[in-house]
């Protein structure tokens, strides 16, 4: 059952030189108990796509068209008050940097209780008990004692667990995890990802995972959507994606992973374009080893390259296009 459906999302920024588009017809969906990984290099539009769902955008940003449907309700047509009631309660964000996400002037418990009071409308002992249960759910030992600690008394991994606890305390239906393992060592990364996996399985929570770490994606994600320069260039079930990657950008990302000691790492020349940079045709063509003349003139449509597997590349010209 689909809980989130983003369709043809277009977004841009008002800059000194005019309006520059940053997201182009971005579409993806999430079902209960499913993890979708949004992958790509920094600057490809992953975080901006997620922030559009929560409508936590810079003042210069504007969504020009599209649909963001949550439980059948288009959030782009809802009032600010309605979106605020959903944000944090039904759709929760696990921000990118756990080290700076908590206010150092208040105990972690005070910050968790504030979330519970606002979204669960609980007070006193009931709110405190809810906070303890949330800490226990994310496996923070001595939960009642640790609620009284300040953020500086928590390690990076514990801070991330506390932030996840805030989402669980509100029974969020969707977690948006923006690079949730940033700045954590490998052991703690595994613990956090295993925790998210348990939440997904046990609570049927839908998770949008934003990451550039394809090793994490291979191990935990159910679906993959690859973004480049504000477009989704390939989407598929995770198993299908890793067994049969199609788009040249996806292949380049996979070939840059140190998976085989006997194989030298490949690099992708250049870098993703800025939103102010005008590139005709496929935006990846200046970096693509398979570039053809048509790639420099036209934007490739999405082609069906397998069951629920789509790729926006002219190398698939002989295949059926994705139906609109």
UniProtKB/TrEMBL annotation:
SMART domains: AAA (SM00382). It is found in: Cell membrane. Signal peptide: none annotated. Pfam families: ABC_tran, oligo_HPY. Belongs to the ABC transporter superfamily. It comes from the Bacteria. The keyword Endoplasmic reticulum does not apply. Keywords: ATP-binding, Cell membrane, Membrane, Nucleotide-binding, Transport. SUPFAM superfamilies: P-loop containing nucleoside triphosphate hydrolases (SSF52540). It comes from Candidatus Scatousia excrementigallinarum. NCBIfam families: oligo_HPY. Residues 6-254 form the ABC transporter domain. It is a peripheral membrane protein. Gene3D superfamilies: P-loop containing nucleotide triphosphate hydrolases. GO terms for cellular component: plasma membrane. One of its GO terms (molecular function) is ATP binding. InterPro entries: AAA+_ATPase, ABC_Ni/Peptide_Import, ABC_transporter-like_ATP-bd, ABC_transporter-like_CS, Oligopep_ABC_C, P-loop_NTPase. This is ABC transporter ATP-binding protein. One of its GO terms (biological process) is peptide transport.
